[in-house]
Structure formats: C-alpha cells, structure tokens
Design a protein that fits this description.
alpha/beta, Rossmann fold, 2 domains, six-stranded parallel beta sheet
C-alpha cells in the first residue's frame, strides 16, 4: 500500500519504519527540513534501540522515503496517517493546533477515497472538528479513522512489530477492510470499534497503568508505617489472577511523554463533561504531590539539603531512552539546587543541565557522580546502575533507592544508610 505518515517524531518515525518493513511504500512527511535531512541519513534526534538500523535498512530497500512536500507525499497515498504532536495546554486540555494544521495542509492533495487516519492521541469526538476542516479544502471523497498507538519508549520497535493488539476506529466497511489488510502481517488481535471507542481505549489504557503506579505508591507509604515490605505485598497479591505480578512500580510516580499528559487530558475532559469527581483527576493530583512529599521526608533523614553533595544516577524518565519529559530528575534536581545542594548527575544517554548554576555538574561516569556524595539517589533502573559495584564509604552516606533495586543489608555492610520505597 502507499502510506504517508505526517509527523516524524517518536511515533511517526517508528511507525514509518515498521510499515515499510512489511513491504509498503511509505513516505514520512515533516515541515522541518533539518529533521528530514537527518532522517534521510538514518539519524533520529532521540535514542531508541534498533530504530536507526531499521530506518537505514528500509531506506536502502526503497520502501521508505522522507520529504517536506505535502503534494509529493499525499498525491498517491491510499492511507494518510497523522502522527503529529498533541501537547497539553496549561489547563490540561489537549492542544489540537498541529492536528488541525495537518488536516488543512493535506486536504488539497488528497485523491479520491483516501483514508485519513489519526494516530495522535486525541479526545473522543474530534472527528466532528476536523472533518469540516478537510472538507473545506478538497472536493474529493475521503474517510476518517482512528488508529491509536501503544508504544513504550525503549522498546518501541519491538512493540510495533509485535503489538498486543491493533485497535481500528472506523465505521465504513471499506475502511475497516483496508486497515485490517494493512495490519494482518503484524499477526496480532485486531479490535474494530467506533472512532470514539478507539480514542477512549488509548486514554483508558494509559490512565489505568498510571493508576496502578499511583495505587502501589499509596500502599508503599502505608507499609513504611508498619514494617511491611512493599515487595512482599506485591509478591503476595500477584498470585491472584485478577491482579497479577506485572506492572507494579513503587517509586517516584509516573513520568514520561504519555502518562502525565494523557491523565491530565482525560481529567480535563472529565471536567468538561461535568464528571468532576472522576478518579482520574485524583490520580493526577497524587502523582504531582509524590516527589515533593518524598523530598521533604528525605530532607529530614539527611539533616536538610543545604551544602550537601548529592549524587544523582538517572536523568531520563526510564531506561533505554534519552527522553527527559516529566522525568523525576528534572523535578528533583532543581529543588535540590534551590535548597542549596551541590548536585552531580549521570545518565548513560540523557543530557540535561539547568541554566547558569555552578552547583550542578553532569558527570561522565557513575563513579564521578557519586564521588564524595553525602547522599546517592538512584532514580532510573539502568543496567549500568543495577550492576554497579558501589564502593565502601567511610563517612555517613544516605543511599536512596527509588526503584527498590538493591539489597539493604549489602549496602549497609558497605557503610550506607539505605532508604527504599515502602520497605
């Protein structure tokens, strides 16, 4: 099939490379010439395992090309997939500016019966807003469909090649048949629903996962008052098939490019439709309060942050990515600096620094980051940290294990004062 993907960010680039790998003729379209030139060389502006190799492979096979020209990209397309950003407004509601602009720009170049697919995360009911935009700029018949993405940063290529499910939101039989045919090579269950249901499926999935993280953090806080260990609790509840052992992550709360955004947007939608007592609103508030609450607790353990040297291990929001959006480090480090701490941070892939603050250094190694630290904070479960042999210390050193990765007894034997989550 001839497929055009508008937007060459994380979702767009991964999707383009994977669809091309199944023999489709795919064109990646973006208005940023710098980004397009970089992609033509097989370079992406973010770290994602396996992606650059797949990108180069598919361009060499001639299945994948990139352009800045709407006319060139859209003229022969059977399916146009919109994968542009949908950031949140200050109110928490979704910003549809880029979606609407893409619809306006693609419309004049559509051929008869093209399927315009929205892969970007958008609230249910958006088709009522974008259909008139496209219709005002074209005389040909076109169809709209929803095709939400469920990628995880760090494993996006594998997730796309081996999805848990494909969700198609469409009502016309011809659209359903064509999108089903496109996704048959993925060998995954295909769920066909109304567009509004497809859009709610995406929000619901992320809100539920965020809820699990928030819920287990609440239980971890209770464990710290009674001597229970949250790891034991997870082990015990996990044998209940309705609950399972998977996806329990006590720690600093959820971050990244999706969960905070999608939870806040769903909360905003709930308020908009007058469901202002919805659980998802509370989930977002609890997550925002998580890091300030823990930092206040840790401050009492170290006798205040002022003039303390803090070694931070992990700047990205999760391992195997350099994405720092809503990363715990970017909330913790500025607060520590404001409190008068000296901060040395290290991450295998992510780079970040505050402007004009001499008390912050991004170290080149874990050893350099924790050198002479009064407190070590492990924020991300990078393998480099899990396997690191922490040295014996002579002075009192607080070791904050926000991912419950390490054995308290072993670290205590090395002279550290261990502090986990819910342990």
């Amino acid at each position: 099939m001839n497929i055009t993907i508008i937007g060459t960010g994380f979702v767009g680039v991964v999707s383009a490379a994977v669809y091309a790998s199944f023999g489709n003729n795919v064109i990646g379209l973006d208005i940023d010439p710098k980004k397009i030139n970089s992609l033509k060389l097989g370079k992406v502006p973010f770290f994602e395992p396996k992606l650059e190799d797949l990108l180069i492979q598919q361009q060499n096979s001639k299945n994948l090309t990139f352009t800045t020209s709407y006319e060139k990209a859209i003229a022969d397309a059977q399916i146009v997939i919109i994968a542009v950003g949908t950031p949140s407004l200050p109110s928490g509601a979704v910003d549809l500016t880029y979606i609407k602009q893409a619809c306006e720009d693609l419309a004049p170049h559509l051929k008869e019966n093209t399927i315009v697919v929205i892969k970007s995360t958008v609230p249910p009911g958006i088709f009522k807003e974008i259909k008139p935009i496209i219709a005002s700029k074209t005389k040909v018949n076109f169809y709209l469909a929803a095709l939400p993405e469920f990628l995880k940063e760090g494993t996006a290529v594998d997730d796309t090649l081996n999805p848990d499910r494909i969700v198609i939101g469409a009502i016309e039989e011809t659209v359903i048949n064509q999108l089903t045919k496109l996704h048959q090579p993925f060998n995954a269950p295909i769920v066909t629903v109304k567009p509004e249901s497809a859009q709610m499926i995406k929000y619901t999935a992320n809100a539920y996962l965020a809820t699990r993280i928030t819920f287990i953090n609440q239980i971890a806080d209770l464990c710290e008052h009674n001597g229970a260990d949250i790891n034991d609790v997870i082990e015990g509840i996990g044998y209940d098939k309705r609950i399972g052992h998977h996806y329990w992550y006590p720690g600093l709360g959820y971050g990244g490019s999706c969960f905070p955004k999608d939870v806040n947007e769903l909360a905003s939608y709930a308020k908009k439709v007058k469901e202002d007592k919805n659980l998802v609103i509370t989930i977002g508030k609890l997550n925002e309060q998580r890091i300030p609450k823990l930092l206040n607790k840790y401050s009492s353990l170290i006798g205040g942050w002022k003039n303390k040297t803090i070694g931070i291990l992990g700047i990205s929001f999760k391992p195997n990515t350099n994405d720092t959006r809503e990363a715990p480090a970017l909330k913790i480090i500025p607060e520590l600096l404001n409190k008068g701490s000296i901060v040395n941070a290290f991450d295998p892939k992510a780079i970040w620094s505050p402007s004009n603050n001499s008390n912050y250094t991004q170290a080149k190694t874990a050893k350099e980051a924790i050198n002479k630290a009064d407190c070590i904070m492990v924020l991300v479960e990078w393998p480099e940290f899990i396997n690191y042999k922490f040295p014996k210390v002579e002075k009192p050193t607080l070791f904050i294990d926000t991912r419950n990765l390490f054995e308290a007894e072993k670290l205590s034997s090395l002279g550290y004062t261990y502090q986990g989550i819910g342990r």
